[in-house]
Every structure is written in C-alpha cells, then in structure tokens.
Amino acid sequence: MSENTKRAVIILSGGLDSTTCMGLAKEAGYELFPISFDYGQRHKIEIENAKQVAEHYGVGARHKIIKLDFLRDFGGSALTDDSIAVPNVTNAPETEEIPVTYVPGRNLLFLSIATSYAEVTGSSAIYIGVNALDYSGYPDCRPEFIHKVEEVIALATKVGVEGKGITIETPLINWTKAKIVEEGLKIGVPYELTTSCYNGKAEACGECDSCRLRLKGFEEAGSKDPIAYLP
C-alpha cells in the first residue's frame, strides 16, 4: 500500500451491521483493517463468522482478534453473565429501561482499542455499526457518545495532536434495519456469513431481540435471510 492509500479500522463482530460497515468502507475506497473482540460473549460463535467475513474481503491476514476476558468476569449483562436470561418473545419484560443485553462500557473499550490499531496502521477512520434506532436503549450507540469519543481521540493521540485526526464513521446510525439490509445487498455484503443471534448456536433462535430485528429487516427489505434458523 502506498502512503496515499486510505485505510480504515472496522470493528467487526461478525454480525449483520458490522459486516455492512465492512462493505461500505470497501465501497468508499478504504483498505480494510478489521478488529474483533472476544469478550466472553454468550454468542462467541460470531468470532468465527468475523473470520469468514475478513477472508471474504481478502484481509484475513490482518484481522486482529482481541481477548477481553474481564468483561465476562465483570458480568452484568445477559451477553456475558449466564445467570441473566437473554430476552425473547416469551420472557421480554415491558420496560423502557436500558436492555439487559447492554454490556457495560463495551463500545467505549472497543473504540479505545480500535483507536490504537488505527494509529499503528495509519488509518484515518474507524467504522462501527452502531444504530440509534434499533438499539436506542444503549447509551453507547448514541451520536452524542460518538462525538465525545472523537473529541477524546483528537486530544489523546499523536495523530490528533498533529492535526491529522481519526474519524469515527457510523453510516448505519440513523438507518432502519430494512435500509441496512437493502444497502448491503446492493453492494454484495455476504450476509450468509454473518450471525446476529444472542444465544450463540449454530442455528439462530429467531426469538431473541437481535434475531427478531434481523428477520424484520429482511422481510421489510423484501428479501430472505440466508442464514439457518431453528425450526
């Protein structure tokens, strides 16, 4: 790669949203530097999906997988604490509180580590698939949070002090799930390689919040979800 090549770090979970970000960054002309996080999540199977996505885009060799085991040690989320049930169609409480699937500080940690990788690789952007519509209960998916982290990056990094900077790209933040699917299909995003299920089985459950949002998105986009679901 030449010094003039645009580079971007992609926070790649192996799910629908982050994989769409991968495709959009590719379409925008960036060289891709994917980074994934093994934080003891219940749905750890998504790490294997992330590996497949990285290979699909020809950047498997530079795909970083970072272990953050302490998030499971901390618990406090249905995704990292087996004593907390994943909400589904039968047990989801009627509440406007932050969902139990929120992982405390997760995106703050992810963006901090991705910033370090961006500096080392000479990347000018970090792509993250946060969405303020479908996950409006998550405080670390809001535009206000992203803007504040950008301000911190400008103050806390060599490139920021030198005036070059690193932007946080959130192309999906105001898109419905249907629009995400539609735009992804247009650019050939390999949704068959992704998973969204919180339960982490080979076949998606179809009942957790994440599965239901995904299925609804494909339905409203007039397309069939290519992954396998439990009967």
TrEMBL record:
UniProt entry keywords in alphabetical sequence: ATP-binding, Ligase, Metal-binding, Nucleotide-binding, Queuosine biosynthesis, Zinc
Pathway(s) of this molecule: Purine metabolism; 7-cyano-7-deazaguanine biosynthesis
EC number(s) from the headed UniProt entry: 6.3.4.20
Cofactor binding note: Binds 1 zinc ion per subunit.
Catalytic activities: 7-carboxy-7-carbaguanine + NH4(+) + 2 ATP = 7-cyano-7-carbaguanine + 2 AMP + 2 diphosphate + 2 H(+)
One GO molecular-function entry: ATP binding
Cofactor: Zn(2+)
Residues given in the record as Zn(2+) binding sites: 197, 205, 208, 211
Any single biological process term in GO: tRNA queuosine(34) biosynthetic process
SUPFAM superfamilies: Adenine nucleotide alpha hydrolases-like
Annotated family: Belongs to the QueC family.
Name of the featured protein: 7-cyano-7-deazaguanine synthase
Species of the source: Paenibacillus oryzisoli
